[in-house]
Amino acid sequence: MTGPRRAAVLGHPIAHSLSPVLHRAAYRELGLDWTYDAVDVTAEMLPAFVVGRGPEWVGLSLTMPLKHAVLPLLDTAEDLVSLVGAANTLVWRDGRRLGANTDVTGMQAALAERGLRDVAEATVLGSGATAASAVAALGLWSVPRITVVARRPEAAAPLHAVAERLGTAVRALGWDEATRALRAPLVVSTVPAGVADALAGQVPEGPGALLDVVYAPWPTRLGEAWREAAGVVVSGLDLLVHQAVGQVRLMTGRDVDVAVLRAALGR
Questions:
Q1: Are residues 257 and 226 both part of a single domain?
Q2: Consecutive sets of 10 residues in the chain, 267 residues long: mean pLDDT of each?
Q3: Do 134 and 198 sit in the same domain of this protein?
């Protein structure tokens, strides 16, 4: 097909999303007359939305609660999707729907940028799709010990499966045991905005590094407390731009420099 193409980010809610800012900036940089919008779509609405897209559509970015819901709609998926059981990207290839997960590689890039690749232990806050991506990102780096802190430790069972496939050990703790888990050299918070606020008063002295995937609002209370304690903080904005680079590559077949996307956020 020739002419302008379309893409969008889907989720519920979605009004806060900065993905349109990033993808539109990428299209401008690449000289593409494409559109990218934010569309409020629930899990129940997703099948009809995906099936109803015309040939001008190239791809979709997926946020919660759609990363699991999209799986039955895929014709094929990259290995990372099978590993973590979640996809944050859908692209059309010759009429077929391909699922991908750029959260995993985005986390790795955001951490590596700050020299945080080699850690002996890490803590992941949360047990959802993004937590599974965090366990995969760390497991692929052969981090030997990962602690998952969840409000319901039994909900971490899928994360155990991810870790086992990568030869990494995972232990699950309840939310009431989070304080000691925050002493790990790397903590990745994957919970929604506000959920980790109560942990802000439990940040240890001389903390390690924190990646908080939330970016609206930023800073989170946990991120602010971590920074005040002189710890290294990697924000959800860092993850956002790096995973967007991967999505742009999947949708356009071309690379855009992360600096272009960061500049767009700054504006």
A1: no
A2: 86 94 98 98 98 97 94 98 96 96 98 95 96 97 96 92 94 94 98 95 97 94 98 97 98 98 94
A3: yes
82: containing domain: 6-100+243-266
Closest to 248 in 3D by CA, of 3, 11, 22: 22
CB 258 within 8 A of CB 241: yes
pTM of the model: 0.94
C-alpha span between 254 and 250 (Å, rounded): 8
What total number of domains does the chain contain?
A: 2
Establish whether 239 is a catalytic residue.
Answer: no
| Alpha-helix runs per DSSP H in the chain | 19-30, 46-51, 66-69, 79-84, 102-113, 129-140, 157-165, 178-181, 221-228, 236-252, 258-266
Q: Cβ atoms within 10 A of the Cβ of 82, count?
A: 13
Three-state DSSP string of 142-158:
CCCEEEEEECCHHHHHH
- On whether residue 260 sits in a domain, the answer given is yes
Cα–Cα dist 34/191, whole Å: 32
- Annotated active-site residue in 5, 67, 97, 242: 67
